[in-house]
Structures are given as structure tokens and as C-alpha cells.
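Hello Y.,

Per our agreement to keep a running log of every chain we model this quarter, I'm adding this entry. I've kept the format consistent with earlier entries: sequence first, then predicted structure.
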Amino acid sequence: MSKRASKVQGGVSLGRWAGIPVTLDWSLLIIFALVLFNLGAGVLPEWHPDWATWLTWSVAFGAAVLFFLSVLLHELSHALVGRVFGIPVSRITLFLFGGMAHTEDEAPSPKAEFWMAIAGPIASLVIGGGALLAGVGLISLSAAQLDAPVEAMSHVGPVATLLLWLGPINIVLAVFNMIPGFPLDGGRVLRAGIWAATGDLRKATKWASYSGQGFAALMIGYGVFSALTSGFSGLWLALIGWFLWRAARGSYQQLLVMQALEGARVHDVMRRHLAWVRPELSVAALVGDHLLRSDQRAYPVLGEGGALVGMVTLTDVQRLPEARRSQATVAEIMTPLSELERVDEDAPVSDALQKLGDRDVEQVPVVDRQGTLLGLVRKQDILRWLTLHDPRQPA
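Predicted structure for the entry above:
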């Protein structure tokens, strides 16, 4: 595993863990802060009123870090079991609501879906049980002290305190993820069961998605009710429910799209006739001669011999102060070839869609094996193709 961190689009790269890229999304800082301040300003001072301030906040910080390390191990277990079944995992993202292992394909069978889904909760249970056992092993309390749990915690050392907090949190994480609502792990287990019973992945995803939306609606309703009657904490539950509802609905729509794209190749949807620019062209000329005279918003940059050397887009221009456009060249603002996602013209359209989503870009260059530019495939080209091959047919 790697501990090197570097900036990437949408967050911070934590390097590769077991060969899988891991990204920490900036939204995770919200949860990190909530966990840190809940422990440092609430739980730990109540358990250990005699602790020095530096010790309280050090333990709180360590607990927050270990919690998100636990989430990472939960997601890694999904990825490693998926690898056993031949399911490629492109990356893992830690974000506001926990973590996500991004798979490039659906599971090949209900068995693979089941074991990949159940691996995460099992990992969380193992971490939680291990932390609890280790924490209990580090303390020595009398029967009288055990009758008053909060008072008993005041006699527990920092390491044992951290472990006794971390253990139950991981067990709760495992139990929550086993709620039978897609795309939670329990929902994927449910989908595996329906898939095995019916032999129809689309129908299984549809019903698991409905289950997920149902549980999400209950969470939203209860969260709003709690917020109105008990305070702010209910809003957080409603927010999680809203996220799950969108994820459940989106997962089914994504499957429909992927099935509609089945058999389609990049050469079926790509845009072949493109204007292109040279790297030495001034940004002012790019704006005046190209961006203002065409609806094309992304231009391949071709070097000597017509080789693709990068891409320049309207967004790249917008980042440059207007006063500098006459002096700056396209080469200075373009995305170089080394940082571009590329796709082969015979690749499945779903591969192009995956690359567009992974990098959050609007287009991907289509190149041959020699690196010669053949065209661009854009999100709007794929959407146009889907319009003619409607994925919203009833299951």
C-alpha cells in the first residue's frame, strides 16, 4: 500500500492500495470534522473529564483517522473479492457518505454479486469485533464499576477508549450496510438473490432499486420528523436518505443505459470531422477564429506530423485571465496527451462512457494504435445514440 498523497481532480489521491487507486473526496472533510468534534467536544470529555485537552483531542483525531481507515478497508474488501471473480475495480473513493468501490462491469453471476457485496460488512464486523476484544483486553474493572458504564469509562486508558469507540462504530457500519436497499451492500445481496431466482439481472436490479428507494423514503420521512421534533440531527438522517434514494434510482438507470449500449462501438457514435489547432496558436486566435465561430467547444491539438499532443477546451480558456490571451499559447493551457483519457474506435461505447465519468469530462479523443487522432466521442454523441435506442423500456 502507498501513503503518498497528491492532488487530483475532485480530491486528493492516497495512492494505490493493493494496486487500486484510492481518492479522498473533499466532502469527506465534513464527516471528519463532525466525528472529530463529536468526540473531542462531547463524548470524550464526558467519559474522561480529568483528561488534558491535548490528550482528548489527540484521541479524537486518532479515532477519526481510524474510522475512515476502517471505511477504506471495507471498500478494499469489496474490491479484492471482486478481483477474485474477475470484476475490475477502477478506483475507490472516500466521500461524504462513506466510501465507494467503482466497478467497470456488472458482476458476471449472482454468486459473484453476493460475495462481493457481503465482503464489506464482514470486514467491518471483523474490524469491529477485533477492536472490541482488544479494548476489553486492555481494561480491568470491578463488578461495581461495570454497573455504571459512564463512570467506568473514566478509568479506561486512551488506547482502550479509542478501541471501545471504534469497535461498535464498525459494527453499526456493517449493520447499516446490510439494510436490503440498493445500492447498499444488503441491497446488492437482495439483488443477487432475486437474480439467482429469476435469472434476470435487469429485473433484479429494478426490484432491489425499488427496495432501496423505499428504505430511503422512510429515512427521509423519519429524519424530517426528527428534525421538527428533536433538533438538527434528524436533518442528517434525511440527507443520507436523499442520497440513497438518488443512488438507488440512478443505479437502475445506469444499468438500463449500459444494456442499451450493449453491442455499440465507439466508431458508431464518434464525431469524425473536427477542427483542430496547433500548440503554438495564441489563445486570442483560438477564441476569435474558432470558439466564437463554431459550436465546437473542445479542440484536439496536433503537433508535427499531425500527432495528437493534447486537448484544449472552452474551460481551459476561461481559467486564463483575458489580459493574457494575446501572449499565451494553446500549449500553455491545454491538457497534455499524457493526462488525457483515450479510447480505441473499436472499443465498446460503455468504455468511453466510463472514461468520461471517471474524469468528469465532456469528450474523449479516439485514437488508433499509432496514436493518430481519428475523432472525438462526446457525452452528447452518446446521449443522441441513446435517444434512438431508448433504454427506458419496461423490464
